[in-house]
Amino acid sequence: MTNTRIPFNPGFLFLDAGPAVVRTFVPEKAPFFMIVDQNASIVSYTIPAADINPTKDLFDRLKDLKTKYSTAWLPGSLIPKESAFEDAKNFVRTLPLTQIVNPSIHVAADGEVTFEWKQENFQIDLGFYGDNTFSYYARKKGQEPLFGDDIPVERGIPKELVDVASAI
Amino acid sequence: MAEYLPFAGKNAIAEMSVGLQFQLPFDSKIGDSIEAIKKEFAEDFPKVDPVQQFTLSVGTPFSPPSLPNPQGAVGFVLTKLKPDSSPARTLRAMGNSLSIHFMEYESWQQTKGLAIAYFEKCLRLIGALEKNGAVAIFMRYVDRFTFDGEPQAANAKLLFREGSKFLPSVIFESGDLWHSNSGWYELLVDETKTLINLNVTSATQPTVNITIDHTNIYPLSRPCNSSVELFRGSQDQHPLPKIFDRQHFANTVILKNLLNEKMLDTIGLK
Q1: Phi, psi of A104 (to 5 degrees)
Q2: Distance CA B267, CA B269 (A)
Q3: Pairing outcome for strands A113-119 and A104-107
């Protein structure tokens, strides 16, 4: 048996049911929904509230890592400082997450909490040791590498990194 | 400590949209312009879908017959997709309105510039204004905040200013599940009364999310049939960029009255 996909073009449906004007709008990749007595023109595209919140997603990942790496996991490895996770969370609050995708987050053996953006033509590595600063190294095909050390977390992500990361 | 987080890092805006409402719905003539629209917007909106309309009638056999379905497209949806295939930006002609939806909001200056440029191009190509005047301008902001903590610890006080004139006091005692839907008129520019709808909702699905949904609808003093008048204004009509600026400002005023100092600081509105 084969699966049959029925293509939906965006469209809307007027259901003539007396005084209640019912309109149904079918945006692609969204569930079928129905609007009663509302002007269809102002219908939002916004993803349902249950969908992922990019900020919360990163906070949850940091919480998981903090639990996972609360003891030394390799001989000689260092447990990340509580303040490294706090710095990472404060840094997330500065990210323009509608412009750039979420980074993957890891913990290094020396206790650094690291953010990584990696695509075919660029890579950004950025890390926190918990001293209210971060460091980064970025490379992009055809460009000189970018790097920075001991940047105060409150300054947030440098614009040059946003430019690199948003060019996906 | 449990707290509310803005939707995307330093930004709480999940969607921002602006639109023009016309006297009448678009008819099938708009379908003739789709090829030109597709070509003109190929770079900014690579995905193009025509919009079709269907009408179903329900009720007694004595109901008047419904209107025949128009043949062909009666609108279009142009989309720029994000890498994850969700829409980043859409331009939509549907029903009686032309609207632009931004799901990647950077700044008001950038958004305003893009919106005006898109409207100018689009109106020129579909030729709507001459036969079907613009009657209203709307702007909508959907801000979202997600609670980072156990649902039972959620409390409106962690996000909102107690005593805000835009919220009933009972929500501050209602935990994670409540809503407040309201509407009123304000003088936005001169003596024109602008309709404001403010719907604030808290729901747990499964994390606690608070959505602030603010729509501002500015009625033009009379139907506008000229793009020059729409964009540059006339003796009795304010230009579109000025109206947009005022609508945006109205949203800022509402947020400053709603959100507590901590969140205003986080999203850069303090």
Answers
A1: -85, 150
A2: 6
A3: antiparallel
Report d(CA A24, CA A11) in Å as an integer: 8
Q: Are B152 and B175 in contact (CB under 8 A)?
A: yes
Q: Which residues of A touch B17 (CB under 8 A)?
A: 42, 44-45
For residues A58 and A24, the model is more confident at: A58
Contact between residue B200 and residue B167 where contact means Cβ atoms under 8 Å apart:
yes
A161 to chain B nearest CA, in Å? Answer: 15
Q: Which domain holds residue A89?
A: 54-165
Domain ranges of chain B: 3-51+72-266
Task: Give the Cα separation of B111 and B113 in Å (integer).
Answer: 5
* Dihedral angle over CA of B170, B175, B177, B178, nearest 10: 10
Q: Comparing B167 with B131, which gets the higher pLDDT?
A: B167
| pLDDT of the residue at A9 | 46
Residues A75, A134 within the same domain: yes
| B6–A contact, CB cutoff 8 A | yes
| Percent of chain A surpassing pLDDT 70 | 68
**Cross-chain Cβ contact A55/B146 below 8 Å:** yes
Work out how many domains chain A is built from and give that number.
2
| Residue B222 confidence (pLDDT) above 60 | yes
Task: State whether residue A38 sits within 8 Å of chain B by CB.
Answer: no
Q: Are both A12 and A69 inside the same structural domain?
A: no
Instruction: Tell me whether B58 touches chain A (CB under 8 Å).
Output: yes
